[in-house]
Amino acid sequence: MTQERWKNIVEWPLVCAALVFLVAYSVQVIANLNDTQSASLDVVIGITWIAFVADYIMMLLLARSRLRWFFTNIHELAILALPMLRPLRLLRLVTLIRVLHRTAGNALRGRIVTYVLSAAVLLTYCGALAVLDAEENAPGANIVMFWDALWWALTTITTVGYGDHYPITATGRVVAGALMISGIGVLGVVTASVASWLVEHVSAEAAAAIETQEEPLRAEIRSLTAQIENLSAKIESLAEQGSVN
Predict the structure, then answer these.
(1) How many CB atoms lie within 10 A of CB 89?
(2) Who contacts 96 (Cβ-Cβ below 8 Å, separation ≥6)?
(3) Which of 64, 139, 201, 217 gets the highest tally of CB atoms within 10 A of its CB?
């Protein structure tokens, strides 16, 4: 079995696991449940984590060069292994983006709409959850409600940054940095995609205009060519008559 075949087999199960994890994690963070209250949710999150670990192990075993794959995907191991990176487990939700890419079609405009909407919504929501998880129980924190976290995520990913809400914990600032970089990346993709679409659209219009203008010229050239051929025929005829006389 190859890595590609394995990806095709587990893609939708991982999407389902990611969605289950998102729901369980959302309830756990937004409701600010204590360890006793969130025990059942921890079981659900643990099961999804086992699914992600199994996927990581299979991808490593199926890699052509295991050592190279291990080092190029070291972040995957960090997300799975380090408890302090718990909020970054939400990165597993990029599986949803990969599925959306398959269903988006080949149209450039369709890809723009799909990636912009899905990536922006997913990053904003996950960033809000992650920073709330890190901040809501920290002394002196000013992000203690989900709506505050969502507002902070919106202003951060759009690079506005009002500063009315901000993380004070180390984990929260790591999440903030990741969201800032992701926001710049999303805006860059949007700008590049729109620019590419505009260039393609203008090029198509210019080609159509040139073709429209060329048609009368081609018709005139054909007419002139026919006239020259007629004149040549007449000249040859006159020349033959003169040689006979």
Answers:
(1) 20
(2) 15, 18, 19, 118, 122
(3) 201
Cβ neighbourhood burial of 92 (10 Å; 0-12, 13-18, 19+): buried
Residue of 165, 170, 144, 145 whose CA lies nearest to 154: 165
Residue count of the chain:
245
How would you write the pLDDT of the chain (245 residues) with one tens digit per residue?
A: 788 888 888 888 888 888 888 888 889 889 888 878 888 888 988 888 888 889 889 999 999 888 998 988 887 787 777 655 555 555 555 555 555 555 454 445 556 666 667 777 888 888 898 899 889 889 999 999 999 999 999 998 888 888 889 999 988 898 888 888 878 877 777 677 677 777 777 777 776 767 677 667 777 787 888 888 887 777 777 666 666 55
- Report d(CA 138, CA 37) in Å as an integer: 19
Domains in the chain, please, with CATH?
Answer: 1-103 (no CATH), 107-210 (1.10.287.70)
Contact 139, 180 (CB under 8 A): no
Note the pTM of the prediction, 2 decimals: 0.67
Distance CA 92, CA 30 (A): 20
Is residue 111 within 8 Å of 143, Cβ to Cβ?
A: no
Which of 158, 154, 136 lies closest to 145, judged by CA?
136
